[in-house]
Amino acid sequence: MALALWLLPQAAAPASGRWVVSVASSLEPALREAAAVWPDAGATGQPLLNAAASGLLLQQIRRGAPADLLLAASPLEIDRLVDDGLADRGSRRAIASNRLVAVAGCDGPTARRLDDLPGAAIDRIAVANVRTAPLGRYTRQALEAAGLWERLEDRLIFAESARQALDYVARGEAPLGIVYRTDARLLADRLCVAFELPPELHDPVVYEGVVLRDATRPAEARAFLDWLTTDGGRAVLARHGFLPPP
């Protein structure tokens, strides 16, 4: 984690004229398309995307990494930046929501609901790190609410981001993983959704954005964030499987 925090801010350093959107890894494919079709892109230039787990992005920004806009996979990271005085409270917007699902190889072990996991022949379950990724927090909340966290804890393999948890299952390092529904769509030709986690067991998965205090292009960052809440922006997010914000 320390190496990631040291390297990623430098990777995010913008080229001349570019501005930076730090974006949760699960949102990156949709943001890549959104940045390309954003109506103002021709006049202002497309932003440079810096993708990582939301918790890592928060730490980067606190350490002075260049960023104009943060798009996080939970409101908690936005709360912390606003409370620290590092973000423009008035620019804050909710842009999308998501669901949690369990994925496995299509011919892999059978588990059709959360309560099946303790008795299923599944020795490893890929989940996101609670400290670095909102997905990890949502997953822990759901497992604790179902009374399964302690029963399954010795089977859990922790990934640093939602995308890495998906990769663990795709590479066969874990026969099952808990990921976002949108991430499962990325490998629908290789992995199948075994079941959806009941959304009432965890906090709503809400993606929020905020313009940062030290933004070099605050007008562009705010215009882009506002556009993501319009019909055009939400159409892009919907094509990637995201749901409207609550």
Topology:
Blueprint: H1 2-11, E1 20-24, H2 28-37, H3 41-44, E2 48-52, H4 54-62, E3 69-72, H5 75-83, E4 93-98, E5 100-105, E6 125-128, H6 134-145, H7 149-152, E7 156-159, H8 162-170, E8 176-180, H9 181-186, E9 191-196, E10 205-211, H10 218-228, H11 231-239
Parallel strand pairs: 1-2, 1-3, 6-7, 6-8
Antiparallel strand pairs: 3-10, 4-10, 5-8, 5-9
Helix pairs in contact: 1-4, 2-11, 4-5
Description of the molecule:
The protein has 246 residues and is α/β, with parallel strands linked by helices. The protein has helices at residues 2-11, 28-37, 41-44, 54-62, 75-83, 134-145, 149-152, 162-170, 181-186, 218-228, 231-239, and strands at residues 20-24, 48-52, 69-72, 93-98, 100-105, 125-128, 156-159, 176-180, 191-196, 205-211. The strands form 2 sheets. It has a 5-stranded mixed β-sheet with strand order 2-1-3-10-4, sandwiched between helices. Strands 7-6-8-5-9 form a 5-stranded mixed β-sheet, with helices on both faces. The radius of gyration is 18 Å and the shape is elongated.
User: Which fold name fills CATH's third level, the topology of the largest domain?
Assistant: D-Maltodextrin-Binding Protein, domain 2
CATH level-four homologous superfamily name of the largest domain: Periplasmic binding protein-like II
Q: Enumerate how many helices there are, as a single number.
A: 11
**CATH class descriptor of the largest domain:** Alpha Beta
- The total strand number stands at 10
